[in-house]
Amino acid sequence: MSDIPEILMIPVNAITVLNPRARNKRVFQELVTSIERLGLKKPITVSQRPGRSRYDLVCGQGRLEAFMALGQESIPAVVIDAAEDDCFVMSLVENLARRQHTPLELVRAIGALRERGYSHGEIAAKVGFSREYIYAICFLLENGEEKLISAVERGVIPHTIAMEIAQAKEGDVQQALAQAYEDKAIPGNQVLAIRRIIEQRNTSGKGMNPRSRGARPAKPATPESLIRALQRETERQTAFVRRAGLTQSRLDFVVSALQHLLANDLFVALLRAEGFNTLPTALAARIGRERL
């Protein structure tokens, strides 16, 4: 039995493209010209549907459309035995694997596979991306984050940053974070910090969009307002660290002074005479003695 697949002439109007994709007009015209001058170098691959009247395209959309553009009524094809769902997946994966796909095509492919019931791990294995990336894209798709998906499609926001932005509860905060990142006003590692600052402020009643009765309506969040919020929080934390350092230095001075004084028997006798027989717990722990 020969391993060489049988090539049949299939009517072009009997073939269904399960995974259609847009193509570059210039590149497509070059393909049409090449086929017109040199002929078809490689047949397309199809799978015959039950009833033997229609076929599903597995790979070769460009060649099929070129034949149709040239007015050809049939095209050489290798016929394989595969279910419609398998044809769709093979076509999709083949399109991603054989050329430099765009972010838009990848996002659409992931969404299509997810709709067909594939798990994040199965999709990752089929398209050759990490499970974390697949999870992020599915999260955005399932939560209807069209603007963030568009940003990921255009390659201006990485999927990890889009995930952080999507978890902001307010739409205006999401939009402001996305715009600030696109404008390079904030680096990616500050997106999470800003989102947490806004969430903390909202929880404590000092949010950018107060809901309390009688509160004056707040202006929608903007990239500038988010950056100011980050700057204020940075200044607050810097001041806190500075105060903590000052407090620590003063405590060290007190501990050192007490250690020297408690080494003096006359000073200890004086404290006992005045009724001071114990030390505060915090000082006792640092000095290493509880009683005088």
UniProtKB/TrEMBL annotation:
InterPro entries for this protein: Chromosome_partition/occlusion, ParB/RepB/Spo0J, ParB/Sulfiredoxin_sf, ParB_N, Plasmid_RepB
Renumbered residue ranges of the record's region Disordered: 203-224
Transmembrane segments: none
Domain ParB-like N-terminal: residue ranges: 8-96
Recorded family membership: Belongs to the ParB family.
Name of this protein: ParB/RepB/Spo0J family partition protein
Record organism: Brevundimonas pondensis
